[in-house]
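Blinded run. Sample ID left blank on purpose so nobody reads anything into the name before looking at the predicted structure. Input follows.
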Amino acid sequence: MNTRYFKAAALALAVSALSAAAHAEDATILGEAKVDMHKYPKIDRVYDVNYDDPKKLNALVGFIKNVNKVVPGKAVVVLHGTEIRAFAKENYEKYQAVIDQLASLSKENVDFRMCNNAMHAAGFEAKDIDGFVTIVPAGFAEVVNLQKQGYKVIDASATPVKDSRYLDHPEKKPQS
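Blinded prediction complete.
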């Protein structure tokens, strides 16, 4: 009986080991990602920004910086959503951190343009808006005009990906 027990245990262990090996093989069946760190040509681009919350401007800062690191060319940001209130002088203290970052980008040749229609609809005048912003007649028309000049449109509805790995495995997130 002892021998039969050990044979059964050994068989169970072998089946378990084979099953684990099969699962490990399944996990790598698709292989490993290829890496292609090529250079980009000069691409003039326009970021179409129409946010429902000025807090999303923080993601925009990172988005622009990341693209500008690898893509040469001109960059224009067209603002025509409720994020425009962050650019109002009266709201500077509330949004100072992100506005200072955006103003810094303007010194690095990122051009910020705000829709006149949206600005007026929000209750602002040009005198109310921070000095690194240029007011243009209409946001959507500005995007189309830049496209006609060869600019490529970037949908700036960027979602931050930082730490998204841990959304499915929060227990693996390193403690800060």
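Unblinding after everyone has recorded impressions. Residues 116 and 137 are 5 Å apart (CA to CA).
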